[in-house]
Specification:
Blueprint: E1 3-10, H1 14-19, H2 33-36, H3 39-49, E2 53-58, E3 73-76, E4 80-83, E5 96-98, H4 100-112, E6 118-120, E7 124-125, H5 127-136, E8 146-152, H6 162-177, E9 184-190, H7 207-219, H8 221-224, H9 229-236, H10 243-252, E10 257-268, E11 271-280
Parallel strand pairs: 1-9, 2-8, 2-9, 3-6, 4-7, 5-8
Antiparallel strand pairs: 1-11, 3-8, 4-5, 10-11
Bound molecules: 3,4-dihydroxybenzoic acid and fe (iii) ion.
3,4-dihydroxybenzoic acid (DHB) is lined by residues 12-15, 61, 191, 195, 197, 239, 242, 269, 271.
C-alpha cells in the first residue's frame, strides 16, 4: 500500500506566486514576513520526509475548465502537468511530473465507490495547484515528486458539499491503501480560508470562524461536515467555500492525526491564510 505520511493545507493566492521568487529579498517586508515566516518548518518536514507523491486537492479557477464545462470532481491521469499564463502575470513554473498508473488506480477505485470522476489525460494546472507546490518545494525543487491533481469545483454552483468532499478524501485514502506500490504520499488541501473577492462583501474575513475550522479539522472534522456550502459562503465568504478542499485532504488521513505546525495570518490579498501540517498519529 501507499502510505500517507502527512497532510498539508496552504493558501494558493496568486500574489504569493509573484512573491515566492523574491522571497529572500522580502525577509524584512512587513507585509510578507508574517506569511513567509510560517513556511520553513513545513518545508523542512517536506525535505526530511521526502514524499514520493503529492496528491494536490485544489480548484481550477478558469484555466483548464471554464463555466461552459465544469466537472464536480476531476482527476489528472497525465504523465505531466503544465502551468500556463492565466492572466495574473505570475511566473510560469516548470512542469510537474505525473503518476498515471496511480492516478488510474485512484480513479477506478473512486468510480467503483460511486464517485463520478472526470478523468483528465491532459490538464493545465493553475495557481490553485502551482502556488502551493512552489511554496512547499522552495526554488521549485519538486522534480522527482510525482503529482496527482484532484480538482474540485468551487467556482460554479452547485458545489459538492463538505460531507461529500470529506467522503471523497476517505475514498482516496482507501484507494491508496489498496495500491500495490509503497510510495510515501503527502496530500495537499489548498486554498481558503475566509475570503470574498467581489460583490458587496468583497474583502470579507471571519477570523473567529477560520480559527474554529482550523481547530475542529484536527480532531473533529465530522463536525465541519455538517456545514452546507451556503453556511461556508455565509461564514467564510463566497471563495471561502474552498474549505471543502481542506476537508477532502482531512478525509484522506486517518482518524487520529497530530499537528506538526500551524499558522494563521490575515491578510494577503484580502484573504485569510491558514497553514496546517498534520501527520497520521499511527
Ligand atoms: C485570490 C485568488 C484566489 O484563488 C484565492 O483563493 C485567494 C485570492 C486573489 O485573486 O487575490
Ligand atoms: Fe482560490
Amino acid at each position: 500500500m501507499a502510505r500517507i505520511v502527512g497532510g498539508i493545507t496552504t493558501s494558493h493566492i496568486p500574489a504569493i506566486g509573484g512573491a515566492v521568487p523574491k522571497e529572500d529579498q522580502l525577509v524584512n517586508d512587513p507585509y510578507w514576513l508574517p506569511f513567509f515566516s510560517a513556511y520553513p518548518r513545513v518545508r523542512s518536514w517536506v525535505q526530511d520526509v521526502k514524499p514520493d507523491v503529492a496528491i494536490v486537492v485544489y480548484n481550477d479557477h478558469g484555466l483548464n475548465f471554464f463555466l461552459d464545462k465544469m466537472p464536480t470532481f476531476a482527476i489528472g491521469a497525465a504523465p505531466q502537468y503544465i502551468n500556463s499564463d492565466e492572466g495574473w502575470g505570475i511566473p510560469t513554473i516548470p512542469p510537474f511530473e505525473g503518476h498515471p498508473e496511480l492516478s488510474w488506480h485512484i480513479i477506478e477505485s473512486l468510480v467503483n465507490e460511486e464517485f463520478d470522476i472526470t478523468s483528465c489525460q491532459e490538464m493545465l494546472v493553475d495557481h490553485g495547484f502551482t502556488v502551493p507546490m512552489s511554496l512547499l518545494w522552495k526554488g521549485n525543487t519538486y522534480q522527482g515528486v510525482k503529482t496527482i491533481p484532484v480538482c474540485i469545483n468551487t467556482v460554479q454552483y452547485p458545489l459538492p458539499s463538505p460531507l461529500r468532499c470529506y467522503k471523497l478524501g476517505q475514498a482516496i485514502g482507501r484507494a491508496l491503501a489498496s495500491w500495490p506500490g509503497n510510495e510515501k504520499v503527502v496530500v495537499l488541501g489548498t486554498g481558503g480560508l475566509s475570503h470574498q473577492l467581489d460583490g458587496e462583501r468583497a474583502g470579507f474575513i471571519n477570523k473567529k470562524f477560520d480559527l474554529m475550522c482550523m481547530e475542529k479539522i484536527v480532531d473533529h472534522p465530522e463536525e465541519l461536515t455538517r456545514l452546507s456550502v451556503l453556511d461556508l459562503a455565509r461564514e467564510a465568504g463566497a471563495q471561502g467555500t474552498e474549505f471543502i478542499l481542506w476537508l477532502t485532504m482531512r478525509g484522506a488521513l486517518g482518524d487520529k492525526v497530530s499537528v506538526v505546525h500551524r499558522n494563521y495570518h490575515v491578510a494577503i490579498s484580502n484573504t485569510a491564510t491558514g497553514l496546517l501540517l498534520l501527520e497520521n498519529a499511527a
